[in-house]
Amino acid sequence: MKIKRKASMVVLSAALMLGGSIALAPTASAVGSSACQFNSPDVNFKVSTSGARFRTGPGKRYRAIGTLYRGDSFRYFCRTRGFENSWSYGKILKRTTTGIHAGTRGWVYSKYLD
């Protein structure tokens, strides 16, 4: 197994040094309010559950910035669609229980907001 890994690394290194490019699987990158379908006046919410993931985009395929817990403050700007089964975009109002800084923007599944 180590020989295959080393051989793969040699081929990859040679291709890159010779000016080749390597096709990598696409990753979900951060998405701001451009994914919103429904805008709203800014509204403050509290997180209604413990363990809600705060993400870089509207969906599980996006990287988690951190975890939100019951009582954390979230300022809502917009969401992906109707409130049920949607993702809400906004910012953290004050440092969260897990240390996410105030002002950090991201996405949370809407049903976790109260």
From TrEMBL:
InterPro entries: SH3-like_bac-type. It comes from the Bacteria. Residues 1-25 form the signal peptide. Pfam families: SH3_3. The keyword tRNA processing does not apply. Keywords: Signal. The keyword Cell inner membrane does not apply. Residues 50-114 form the SH3b domain. This is SH3 domain-containing protein. It comes from Streptomyces rhizosphaericus. The lineage of its organism: Bacteria, Bacillati, Actinomycetota, Actinomycetes, Kitasatosporales.
